[in-house]
Write a structure and sequence with these properties.
It is a single chain. The protein has helices at 12-24, 35-45, 61-71, 85-94, 106-120, 158-168, 177-184, 192-208, and strands at 4-8, 28-32, 49-53, 76-80, 98-101, 128-131, 134-137, 142-147, 150-154, 175-176, 215-218, 222-225. By secondary structure, it is of the alpha/beta class. The strands form three sheets. Strands 2-1-3-4-5 form a five-stranded parallel beta sheet, sandwiched between helices. Helix 1 links the parallel strand 1 (4-8) and strand 2. Helix 2 (35-45) packs parallel to helix 3 and helix 6 crosses helix 8. The radius of gyration is 19 Å and the shape is elongated.
């Protein structure tokens, strides 16, 4: 049975967006409009993951998180407009597994949820990664981009494929060149300019297939796979 995600969020519009994106990716969802309902549903349904807003009626998110941690180890991702370092530290101190700040990209939230659930052993890694219009078949070592003209296959080298997969596992995260070397070119003597060369060719192939501006450079930092909801 697919993983069940409990969305504790008092903003109906935000909750609806999250439910739509998670259901599209095959998750089951349920919604709590306040903290007390979230605690009650957690007891009754034993969800696989909790998406938890901080500022909610009746019982706030910090209290819900503390209550959840007294019961067990259900993975929890905090979703909040509170972006100060102290708020992040508070969430991690109380046992949150991840922390997402509003406004957020719902695709990124789903990707983070998948990562948290994999770490918890709830789900195994999917055979196909999907990021926006990009699909990556991990078993077949094939990638394609969906466009108005249909699926456009990408003719990638093994290194290009590894780089694309690594970034696709955490959409919108900025990766430094050294991170990409360590993850995708282990044991090599690759330099930063080598990574730049591989990613330049990868970007050209993505754009030719219709994924314009998907692979982005972040000046002074590195690269990210940017996606649009």
């Amino acid at each position: 049975m697919n993983a069940l995600v409990l969305i504790a969020e008092d903003d109906a519009e935000i909750a609806g967006i999250l439910e739509a994106y998670f259901q599209r990716e095959g998750f089951r969802t349920t919604h709590a409009r306040d903290g007390q309902v979230a605690l009650d549903l957690h007891t009754a349904l034993k969800p696989d993951l909790l998406l938890l807003d901080v500022t909610m009626p009746r019982v706030d998110g910090w209290q819900v998180l503390a209550g959840i941690r007294q019961r067990g180890n259900t993975p929890v991702i905090m979703i909040t407009a509170l972006d100060a370092d102290l708020d992040r530290l508070q969430g991690l101190r109380l046992g949150a597994d991840d922390y997402v700040v509003k406004p957020f990209n719902p695709i990124e939230v789903v990707a983070r949820a998948n990562a948290v659930l994999r770490r918890a052993g709830t789900i195994s890694e999917a055979a196909v990664l999907r990021v926006g219009g990009l699909s990556i078949d991990l078993d077949a070592y094939q990638a394609s981009v969906t466009s108005p003209q249909g699926d456009q296959p990408l003719n990638l080298t093994l290194t290009e494929f590894r780089l694309l997969v690594h970034m696709a596992r955490t959409p919108t995260k900025v990766f430094s060149r050294s991170e990409l070397v360590d993850a995708c070119l282990p044991g090599s003597d690759a330099l930063d300019r080598t990574v730049d060369s591989h990613l330049s060719r990868l970007r050209k192939k993505l754009e030719e297939a219709g994924a314009v501006r998907m692979l982005q450079s972040v000046r002074g930092v590195g690269y990210r796979l940017g996606v649009q909801p």
